[in-house]
Amino acid sequence: MEAASTYRRVMELGPESAEAYPAEVAVGNIELHQGRPLVALAHYQHALATRPSGALSEEARWGKARALRAAGRFAEERAALEEFRARHPDSQLVPASTRRLAEIGP
């Protein structure tokens, strides 16, 4: 996919640049959509490690939880959803995270 290639090039040319952060989240979204949750997870985690409170941290945390679910790592998904709710209590995705936590169970 051309968009993913462009985003990867941005990350390679300036891994610490302001442009690399949104590119990292975008590549995570693309990888998740293409059925590669572990690759997506790595991108979301890297984005969160570099900018834990960045403008896209809500999207990255939600993507991280979705990637963990797709990978079948439900205990980690639960922890990611709990972190999501704690860090983004006003998010429109809180109801969806609450439903998913109920599905996963304790």
UniProtKB/TrEMBL annotation:
This is Uncharacterized protein. It comes from the Bacteria. Gene3D superfamilies: Tetratricopeptide repeat domain (1.25.40.10).
